[in-house]
Design a protein that fits this description.
D-Maltodextrin-Binding Protein, domain 2; ATP phosphoribosyltransferase; binds adenosine-5'-triphosphate; five-stranded mixed sheet; binds 1-O-pyrophosphono-5-O-phosphono-alpha-D-ribofuranose; cytoplasm; alpha/beta; EC 2.4.2.17; 11 strands
């Protein structure tokens, strides 16, 4: 048996869309069942459904052998995992954004304080960060901060709130991650599964 950690949100949808678009039908039906269960077993693969930022925690500990997580999560927190490969979905990017005509940004709201502080430190910019848990676009609109560091995908959230992108920080993709030990001790089973989902 191998255990695969998936998220419950956007990346789950992206993953099942990817399987469908590539006619990799084997796992779609059991994964798409409407239920509140947080795991499902298909043959010798157990899928667990976690919050995105928790996927690397399960994989690091070895209770999950592999997982799918956004590179934003891996950039924000340090995990002792194998960062195996990029997956062909979940594309978006981190940007600095704010109101048009905003001058020097001294205060920034973000969910991603580690990514933001590294970025501003490397640019030798003295910026105070305010940690928020979501809807960070509100912060510059209300004058809480001069700008934000956040994920941009379609750009609609920025546009609908009258904000513009100032600088792109980094690209984000879904990543296949693995436990450093069981990726080798369960190599055959993992390889079989990854072949079934078109990754290897
Ligand atoms: N527009 C976007 N906003 C946020 N994350 C995005 C976006 N587009 C792609 N992603 C990727 O999707 C991941 C978030 O999806 P995930 O399935 O973990 O949960 P979610 O959609 O945030 O939902 P929830 O937090 O309710 O579980 C991010 O880590 C990022 O890599
Ligand atoms: O460029 P877009 O396609 O509009 O996507 C970007 C938005 O999506 C995410 O928010 P999410 O919906 O996850 O909600 P949150 O603000 O509560 O994190 C992100 O934080 C942006 O707000």
């Amino acid at each position: 048996m191998i255990t695969v950690a998936l998220t419950k949100g956007r990346l789950f949808k992206d993953f099942t869309d990817y399987l469908e678009n590539n006619d990799l039908t084997q796992y779609i039906k059991p994964l798409s069942e409407e239920t509140r269960s947080l795991y499902t077993v298909v043959d010798n693969v157990k899928f667990i459904f976690a919050k995105g930022p928790d996927v690397p925690t399960y994989v690091e500990s070895g209770v999950a052998d592999i997982g799918i997580a956004g590179s934003d999560i891996i950039a924000e927190d340090k995990f002792n995992i194998l960062n195996v490969s990029q997956l062909p979905f979940g594309d978006c990017h981190f940007s600095v954004a704010g109101l048009p005509g905003q001058g020097e940004m001294k205060t920034i709201a973000t969910k991603y304080t580690n990514v933001a502080s590294k970025y501003f430190r490397e640019k030798k910019m003295d910026v105070s960060l305010v940690h928020l848990n979501g809807s960070v676009e509100l912060a510059p609109l209300l004058g809480l901060t001069d700008g934000i560091v956040d994920i941009v995908q379609t750009g609609n959230t920025l546009k609908d709130n009258g904000l513009i992108e100032y600088e792109k920080i980094m690209d984000i993709h879904a990543r296949l991650i693995a436990n450093k030990r069981t990726f080798y001790t369960k190599e055959d089973e993992i390889y079989k599964f990854l072949t079934e989902i078109g990754v290897f």
